[in-house]
Amino acid sequence: MNRAVGVWMWLGFLGAYPVAAQSTGPMLKIGFINSRQVMSQTPGYQAAESTFNRELQGYRNEVQKLAAQLDSARQALDQQSIALSPAIKQTKQKELQERQQRLEQRSNELQQKAQQREQELLQPIQARINAVIQGLRAEGNYAVIFDADAPGSNIIAADPSLDVTSKVLARLKQSQ
C-alpha cells in the first residue's frame, strides 16, 4: 500500500514538471545510482569492511565462549540435580538465570559496539560518496538522483541511460 502511495506521489511530482518531449516549462532531469555497487567499489571500503569483519568475529567469539560456559554450567547442574537438596538446587538455578542475563546483556553491549564501530568505519566513506553525488547532481543539473537499491525506492524499471553510477565511481576514484 505504501509503495503504491509513494509511486503515485512521485508520479504527481513528476507530472508537475514537463518531460523532455514537451517544451512548455523547465525540464526535470533525474538519475539513479546503484548504491551497493558504489559502496563496494569506493576506495577504502574493502579495508573498512575487512576491519569490521575481523572485529565482529572477535565479538562473536566472546559471545560463543560465554554461551559455552553457560551450557557447561547448565549440564553440570542437570547431572548434579538428583544429589542436591531443593534449596541448593534452587540457588544454582538462580545463578544460572543470572549468568543467562549477563550473557544477554553482554551480547547486547557487543551488538551495540559493533553497530557503532560499523558507523565509525563507514561514515567517512558515505560522506565522500554523498559529496560526490551532490556535486554531480548540481553540475549535471539533476533535480533528483534516486538510490535504486534503497528499501522502498519504488523504482521498478528505469532507462539505463539515467544510471549515473559509473560517473559517481569515476569521481570517487579521481578524488582518492
Describe the structure.
With 176 residues, the protein is mainly alpha-helical. It has one domain (2-174): Skp domain (Protein Binding, DinI Protein, Chain A). 69% of the residues lie in helices and 5% in strands. The protein is built from five helices and two strands; from the N terminus they run αβαααβα. The chain has helices spanning 2-15, 35-41, 45-80, 86-139, 165-174, and strands spanning 30-33, 144-147. It has a two-stranded parallel ribbon. α3 (45-80) runs antiparallel to α4 and α4 crosses α5. The protein starts with a helix and ends with a helix. Mean pLDDT is 85; it is low at 1-22.
Which oligomerization state do the chains in this entry correspond to? single chain
Strand order of the largest sheet: 1-2
User: CA-to-CA gap between the ends?
Assistant: 42 Å
Tell me what the CATH architecture is.
2-Layer Sandwich
Secondary-structure class: mainly alpha
Largest pleated sheet: 2 strands, parallel
Strand content: under 5%
The CATH homologous superfamily: Skp domain
Number of helices: 5
Q: Mind telling me the C-alpha Rg? A: 27 Å
Low-confidence stretches: 1-22
Quantity of strands, as a count: 2
List the helices and strands and how they pair.
Layout: H1 2-15, E1 30-33, H2 35-41, H3 45-80, H4 86-139, E2 144-147, H5 165-174
Parallel strand pairs: 1-2
Overview features:
mainly alpha; Protein Binding, DinI Protein, Chain A
Provide a short characterization of the protein structure.
The protein has helices spanning 2-15, 35-41, 45-80, 86-139, 165-174, and strands spanning 30-33, 144-147. The protein is mainly α.
